[in-house]
């Protein structure tokens, strides 16, 4: 029984030895002693069979506590010889505490086999200055050491203020402008006025409307079987007249909306509103239903249009020639009175 155990132990040692011969690892330092803050390369060397897969040790930001990793290279193939690969990874390390460190063994793993490197010492010392270097220092040029001063409380400049709050100021001004613009348009809409103030015509509204009605009459459109075009121009003339005369948005409204607006606003009497209804009812039928009104209806529409304009026009009191002559005579009498008194 003891012989069997001895044989198994020997076989296990032989197999481990054979597998260990497939790859071997070592650790190398450029120097075993540095001053604090200096950097040195730690080299991981691996010799392995060509087809073998071996995993290198994995590090994050430290080799061990106190030894920091500055950078890591990839795993490079140094050489290839007789079916074996020579691999290396360079790790740049540094340390900032003066101490004697022991770098532990690192494991290289291939399947179920593991090979460890040997541990080694790494000495980090304080910076040493020789007497020659110290003698060259000019201590008179060294700045004196003072206590830390409190932050200085300086007033803000306009540039600094604008950098911090400029965007908010611009947004606030835009919001104010939009508020007043929206309020203006809402008020004009509520008052049934056009959103934008149209430029007032140089001529009175009724003069423009009557001239266009005369021009429409001379065209004789409905007599030429062009009733749709006739009523389009006729209703447009009346809508334009309402905008110029009463400053209401008539061009954007439907016929029904416009008549309801006139009825509720009491801008004109019932008779004029009925004339409007007659014109716009026939106009909608002619424009949208291809209806052909009778000649008498067409003629009545034009007469009603004249009636609307003439009965709603804005009358401006003008001084007649008779009134002018009368005023001149009165002025003469007034001017002559002082002369008579003087006589």
Summary, kept brief:
With 343 residues, this protein is an alpha+beta fold. Helices cover 47% and strands 20% of the residues.
Question: What's the arrangement of secondary structure elements?
Answer:
Blueprint: H1 2-20, E1 23-29, E2 33-35, E3 39-49, E4 62-64, E5 67-72, E6 76-81, E7 84-95, E8 99-103, E9 107-110, E10 113-116, E11 120-125, H2 131-135, H3 158-190, H4 205-219, H5 227-246, H6 255-265, H7 270-288, H8 295-312, H9 321-342
Parallel strand pairs: 2-11
Antiparallel strand pairs: 1-3, 3-7, 4-5, 5-7, 6-7, 8-11, 9-10
Helix pairs in contact: 4-5, 4-8, 5-7, 5-8, 6-7, 7-8
The strand count comes to: 11
Q: Return the structural class.
A: alpha+beta
Would you identify the regions where 5 or more consecutive residues have pLDDT less than 50?
11-20, 318-324, 330-343
Q: How do the SSEs run, as a string of H and E?
A: HEEEEEEEEEEEHHHHHHHH
Number of helices: 9
Structural overview:
- By secondary structure, the protein is α+β, with helices and mostly antiparallel strands.
- It folds into three domains: 2-125, Immunoglobulin-like, CATH 2.60.40.10; 157-191; 205-312, Four Helix Bundle (Hemerythrin (Met), subunit A), CATH 1.20.120.
- Helix content is 47%, strand content 20%.
- The chain has helices at 2-20, 131-135, 158-190, 205-219, 227-246, 255-265, 270-288, 295-312, 321-342; strands spanning 23-29, 33-35, 39-49, 62-64, 67-72, 76-81, 84-95, 99-103, 107-110, 113-116, 120-125.
- Strands 1, 3, 4, 5, 6 and 7 form a six-stranded antiparallel sheet that branches.
- A hairpin with a 2-residue loop joins strand 9 (107-110) and strand 10.
- The longest helix is centred in the middle third of the chain and has 33 residues, at 158-190.
- It is elongated and about 120 Å long.
């Amino acid at each position: 029984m003891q012989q069997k155990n001895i044989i198994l132990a020997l076989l296990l040692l032989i197999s481990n030895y054979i597998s260990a011969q497939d790859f071997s690892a070592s650790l190398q330092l450029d120097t075993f002693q540095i001053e604090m803050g200096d950097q040195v390369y730690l080299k991981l060397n691996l010799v392995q069979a060509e087809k073998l897969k071996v995993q290198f040790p994995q590090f994050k930001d430290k080799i061990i506590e106190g030894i920091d990793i500055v950078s890591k290279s990839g795993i490079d193939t140094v050489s290839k010889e007789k079916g074996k690969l020579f691999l290396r990874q360079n790790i740049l390390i540094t340390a900032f505490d003066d101490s004697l460190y022991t770098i532990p063994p690192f494991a290289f793993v291939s399947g179920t086999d593991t090979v460890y490197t040997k541990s080694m010492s790494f000495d980090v010392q304080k910076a040493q200055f020789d007497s020659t270097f110290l003698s060259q220092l000019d201590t008179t040029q060294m700045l004196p050491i003072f206590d830390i001063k409190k932050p200085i409380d300086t007033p803000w400049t306009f540039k600094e203020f604008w950098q911090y709050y400029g965007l908010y100021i611009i947004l606030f001004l835009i919001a104010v402008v939009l508020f007043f613009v929206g309020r203006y348009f809402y008020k004009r809409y509520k008052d049934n006025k056009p959103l934008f103030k149209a430029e007032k015509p140089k001529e009175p509204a009724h003069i423009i409307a009557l001239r266009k009605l005369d021009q429409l009459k001379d065209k004789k459109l409905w007599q030429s079987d062009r009733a749709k075009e006739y009523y389009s121009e006729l209703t447009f003339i009346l809508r334009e007249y309402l905008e110029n005369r009463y400053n209401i948005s008539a061009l954007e409204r439907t016929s029904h909306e416009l008549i309801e607006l006139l009825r509720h606003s009491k801008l004109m009497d019932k008779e004029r509103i009925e004339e409007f209804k007659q014109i716009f009812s026939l106009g909608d039928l002619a424009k949208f239903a291809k209806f052909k009104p009778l000649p008498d209806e067409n003629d009545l529409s034009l007469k009603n249009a004249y009636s609307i304009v003439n009965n709603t026009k804005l009358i401006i009191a003008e001084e007649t020639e008779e009134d002018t002559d009368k005023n001149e005579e009165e002025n003469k009498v007034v001017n002559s009175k002082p002369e008579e008194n003087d006589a």
